[in-house]
């Protein structure tokens, strides 16, 4: 190992771990405990039968954690087996003298980290805190006792390739190593147990581990009680803990942490199954009090210079990840398979994005974990309110998501997330209430009010969510903006007074639009653009300058020219200035308005008074004797316009003073 300005580096032989860097940020996190199945070969079954005859001893809880490639700056870089904790390294670690680096690693009980080089993984243990690993049969994980563990640890052959240097020892594994792979381990502090590699993750590069200590010797946070089934957090000293993170570190899997009233200026990392219950969304608040402004001008220039100097895409990604860790940490991150429930809490991050920027910073981020949120608020963010990525699973219900400068909820593209949002208000978010990334099909937005965005209420691209029985209104552009290869279910929604259109379908869109009510949107009810061909069936189009507009897109793509016939079946039209216009046959670039098409050209569609109770008063229920009810058209469930959530100060600080939500009219608050 040699010392360099950007960390500690292991230099080994040809093709072996030339660059293993220790760097990033220091925050503790307690991993999730869960059970996973292991596979036994015949030899393992024989060993298991022998092991069952031994005294099994007292084992601590099974701890599961995903440890990231240390070069990726994504947190959870280091593992302390004795304490059952993961750690992130501080960025300043890179500038410390080597002796101080070694002292820090030893003082924090760091046992393992890992690095991927080519097709190999290295499990790295600092020599001053060395962990011995002995590969064993998988069957020992489930049934072997203390005697068997001791015998395995007496072996000198680790069973895998080992590279040793003065500062570190590296256990070398191939990326195609069969899993699970089980080790007997012993730490420098005397902890003994079983460690199992449960799987390799390609993107972002990571390895899933689980382990258990003999004798339940995991120490947890210094001085904190362990294994608690319930903890209380109170600012007046009456609780079991004074901080939420301390309580999270102390409790066992499935525990409840009850949080009293007050503002808790913490950033939480949750990697276990736990419930956090506040005193009420308007009483218990989690989030920093300082106003987020991002990097200074000097820091921004420094990042720009480094980005320009980067030679490879990997270097640029490394710099972006470093900036994310340094400047854009969420208030709460749920990760490593944690199953977390929130109730009666408000989460917030005061701040504003730089002029002309949209940030991916989130107040609450779920990565490879599960979230259930009820009766909560996520209000105020210079970026997103909630972000779901990396296989996240979430149910958000009866909650307020508001005043995010980017999007209220963002579901990352390609993340294979499963998200259900029901009975929520998503409002006054600068870019959009919800953004659904490419490839997402297991997303459902149901019975929500989605309003007040400077751009779109809901946007999705090359995705096929279910958007059902929502009230989508007062957004500056589209109530729903749906672009690309989409086959979404858009059913039973009310689109009202969006400043451009109720919904716009772009390029290869093939959504199914059924039983929606498009009412008094300011430009048109529905835009069908390019080769989009949504199926439009049993909808109401009421009081628009143009109910349906079909047009070209100013784009060189082959999918930009309107060419597909409109698919209109059994829709009801009333008091529109023009019912249908289409640019099919019109030369792109022609500045003349597209010609109107008689409604009679679409058999089964009718012009008839729908029988809406009171559009002006925000009551979109259909009268039993009305024309829409007789035809079976329109939204049969209509949410009331009035929200149960009062306007929040974070919203009032940014929304325009006038009725419009045009992006040019929004205000930019300053930190107090």
Topology:
Layout: E1 2-4, E2 7-9, E3 28-29, H1 42-51, E4 63-68, E5 78-80, E6 85-87, H2 98-107, E7 112-117, E8 120-126, E9 132-136, H3 140-143, H4 146-153, E10 161-164, E11 168-174, E12 181-186, E13 192-201, E14 206-213, E15 228-233, H5 244-250, E16 251-259, E17 262-264, E18 268-270, E19 274-277, E20 284-286, H6 297-309, H7 313-327, E21 332-334, E22 339-343, E23 346-347, E24 362-367, E25 370-374, E26 377-381, E27 384-389, E28 393-397, E29 400-404, E30 407-411, E31 418-422, E32 425-427, E33 432-436, E34 443-446, E35 449-451, E36 456-461, E37 466-468, E38 471-473, E39 478-483, E40 489-491, E41 494-496, E42 501-506, E43 512-514, E44 517-519, E45 524-529, E46 535-537, E47 540-542, E48 546-551, E49 567-569, E50 572-574, E51 578-582, E52 606-607, E53 612-614, E54 619-622, H8 627-631, H9 649-652
Parallel strand pairs: 15-16, 16-19, 17-20, 18-21, 19-22, 20-23, 21-24, 22-25, 23-26, 24-27, 25-28, 26-29, 27-30, 28-31, 29-32, 30-33, 31-34, 32-35, 33-36, 34-37, 35-38, 36-39, 37-40, 38-41, 39-42, 40-43, 41-44, 42-45, 43-46, 44-47, 45-48, 46-49, 47-50, 48-51, 50-52
Antiparallel strand pairs: 1-2, 3-6, 4-14, 5-6, 5-7, 7-8, 8-11, 9-12, 10-11, 12-13, 13-14, 53-54
Report on this structure.
With 672 residues, the protein is mainly beta. Helices cover 11% and strands 36% of the residues. The protein is built from 9 helices and 54 strands. The strands form 7 sheets. It has a 13-stranded parallel sheet. The protein has a 13-stranded parallel sheet with strand order 17-20-23-26-29-32-35-38-41-44-47-50-52. Strands 18-21-24-27-30-33-36-39-42-45-48-51 form a 12-stranded parallel sheet. A hairpin with a 2-residue loop joins strand 7 and strand 8. It is elongated, with a radius of gyration of 29 Å.
